[in-house]
Q: What sequence folds into this?
């Protein structure tokens, strides 16, 4: 018989390599930070800001017009590893019972593909999530400030229900929307919650391997 997922995550997940402890022993363990974060996400009302998953090496080559929307030669695209990571992350979110209300992505192909492979709903593109080179191309003088301002607005907006996933890029420029966004790894997420005053608070970070470990723990337990 399967235990309710809320009991599994809230009671049985322990500090260490993200494995489940036997609850029948009566020995109680405090939930690990990752377990607490998963339970927080299950309540809804949060924003999951994800950097696109692993992409080919190299740099985008700016061109004419809206070059960041083009796919293929001259643009970083998801690697096979990145495609597999996106699928695994989406599957883990499903298995962990984390409700997703909406998925948005930047207009870059690698972000759009990541959002689609998550299979958490029909993603919508949002220019506020575009990488900083495109914003510098649109507005050389104020582009980075506009990008940070737009991102802050997205992070400070409480979802109508469930959680919102934003698939974007790291913001490795002076004064990013939030310091954590400057060093996110491929496929890594930062979880934010609106503070109700027009701002937001960081709840934690989730690496691709964290999602995989949590999902695998569920499989091994049952």
A:
């Amino acid at each position: 018989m399967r235990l309710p997922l809320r009991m599994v995550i809230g009671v049985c997940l322990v500090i260490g390599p993200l494995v489940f402890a036997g609850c029948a022993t009566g020995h109680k363990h405090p939930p690990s930070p990752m377990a607490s974060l998963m339970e927080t996400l299950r309540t809804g009302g949060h924003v999951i800001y994800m950097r696109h998953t692993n992409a080919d090496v190299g740099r985008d080559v700016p061109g004419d017009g809206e070059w960041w929307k083009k796919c293929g030669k001259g643009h970083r695209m998801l690697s096979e590893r990145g495609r597999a990571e996106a699928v695994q992350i989406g599957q883990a979110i499903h298995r962990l019972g984390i409700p997703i209300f909406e998925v948005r992505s930047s207009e870059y192909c690698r972000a759009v593909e990541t959002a689609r492979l998550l299979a958490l709903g029909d993603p919508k593109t949002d220019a506020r999530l575009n990488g900083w080179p495109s914003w510098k191309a649109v507005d050389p003088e104020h582009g980075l400030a506009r990008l940070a301002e737009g991102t802050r607005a997205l992070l400070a907006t409480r979802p109508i229900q469930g959680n919102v996933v934003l698939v974007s890029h790291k913001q490795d420029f002076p004064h990013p929307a939030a310091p954590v966004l400057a060093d996110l790894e491929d496929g890594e997420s930062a979880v934010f919650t609106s503070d109700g005053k027009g701002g937001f608070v960081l709840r934690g970070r989730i690496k691709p391997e964290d999602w995989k470990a949590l999902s695998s723990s569920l499989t091994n337990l049952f």
DSSP finds seven helices and six strands in the chain.
